[in-house]
Amino acid sequence: MSSGGTDYHIHTPLCRHAVGDPIEYVRAAQAAGLAEIGFADHSPMPQKLDDWRMSIEELPRYVEMVEEVGSMELPVRLGLECDFIEGNESWIESLAGRASWDYFIGSVHYIAPGWDVDNPKYLSRFKQYPVDEIWGLYWRHYVRCIESGLFDFVAHPDLPKKFGFRPAGDLRRYYRPAIEALAERNVAFEINTAGLRKDAKEVYPALEFLELAYEGGVALVINSDAHSPDEVGHRFDFARDLARQAGYKKVCRFKNRSRIEVDL
Ligand SMILES: [Zn+2]
Ligand SMILES: [Zn+2]
Predict the structure, then answer these.
(1) The Cα angle at residue 113 between residues 111 and 118, in degrees rounded to 5
(2) 149-198 pLDDT, tens per residue?
(3) Calpha distance 134→145 (Å, rounded)
(4) What whole-number distance in Å separates Cα of residue 65 and Cα of residue 171?
(5) Ligand 1 center to residue 18 CA distance, Å?
(6) If you average pLDDT over every residue of the chain, what do you get?
(7) What pTM was computed for the model?
(8) C-alpha 262 to ligand 1 mean position (Å)
(9) In 3-state terms, what secondary structure has residue 227?
């Protein structure tokens, strides 16, 4: 594990599918030699959507939990992983006013009402529908998520590969519109090492996406998407090598919703 990195995509038990107190994540980050971390738990939503996020009543507790561990020697940033669903933009805007956030992550999990594409409950749909249709739907939402201007960076770009289903051929046809939107809107994206722990068996996004993003001048951040303390900084050396392979020499850090670039 090389030192000096950051990990900005870390969950808490408030989302009901992560384990470990925030302090345990902070200790794991220190042990891994990270310079800075940030929590970004799944955002509350205006309607009861699913069972994998905090409620709006729990939001103050979340902020308090993160602030409690923020007084330690390791800088701890306050973020939120927001589900982008068209029609809910004003909800995200209202969340932005509810705390002193360091960054908002935009995520697309829902590709249709009631279908979160990474949920194993709906795995059979990958056999019911053509995979290129599922991917097409996902990437259209992903572009809108970027274009919304609500987020500092976007999460796990090619998430629909989670279970190992990929359309045939050159997948850059899906990546290009997203990368153009990122460049145009000056939004960053993450390498998310959780894909290595799933059937996809590679980081999100694929190397071809990284190469195109680098050519487009899009800023990068490397994250684990930890849902347990032992996942903090998971395989970051591998992710950094991949970023370098694509041409990257810088990654970014976030504070008060502004971004600075530091050496990779
Ligand atoms: Zn989660
Ligand atoms: Zn996510």
Answers:
(1) 45
(2) 999 999 999 999 999 999 999 999 999 999 999 999 999 999 999 999 99
(3) 17
(4) 40
(5) 7
(6) 96
(7) 0.97
(8) 27
(9) coil
